[in-house]
């Protein structure tokens, strides 16, 4: 990663979500993490309610990547990578 990019950390809960994704969605997730979120995490959608302080990025029609940002440490914590419409 270049010095301008954020490090990506994946929580246990997100790891479980990722394990359930299809290989195609896993590849898309990797591309989004490395090409979009690591470069400019603040372009995601700011979330409200219980998830205030977190951001969301669309992975597929029904799946979202939910993450929080540590701007001082330049770290993005991936919290979820799953549907928000129920299972």
Estimated radius of gyration: 12 Å
Q: Under the CATH scheme, which architecture would be assigned? A: 2-Layer Sandwich
End-to-end gap: 34 Å
Main-sheet strand order equals 1-5-4-3-2
State the name of the first-level CATH class: Alpha Beta
Secondary-structure blueprint:
Blueprint: E1 7-10, H1 12-20, H2 23-37, E2 45-46, E3 55-58, E4 63-70, E5 75-83
Parallel strand pairs: 1-5
Antiparallel strand pairs: 2-3, 3-4, 4-5
Describe the structure in your own words:
By secondary structure, the chain is α+β, with helices and mostly antiparallel strands. Helices cover 28% and strands 31% of the residues. It is built from two helices and five strands, in the order βααββββ. The protein has helices at residues 12-20, 23-37, and strands at residues 7-10, 45-46, 55-58, 63-70, 75-83. It has a five-stranded mixed β-sheet with strand order 1-5-4-3-2. β4 and β5 form a beta hairpin. It is globular, with a radius of gyration of 12 Å. The mean pLDDT is 92.
List keywords for this structure.
87 residues, alpha+beta, YaeB-like fold, 5 strands, 28% helix, globular
């Amino acid at each position: 990663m270049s010095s301008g990019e954020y490090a990506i950390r994946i929580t246990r809960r997100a790891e479980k979500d990722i394990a359930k994704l299809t290989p195609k969605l896993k590849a898309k997730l990797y591309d989004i993490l490395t090409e979009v979120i690591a470069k400019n995490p603040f372009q995601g959608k700011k979330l409200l309610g219980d998830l205030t302080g977190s951001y969301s990025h669309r992975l597929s029609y029904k799946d979202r990547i939910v993450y929080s940002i540590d701007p001082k440490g330049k770290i993005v914590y991936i919290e979820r990578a799953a549907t928000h419409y129920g299972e």
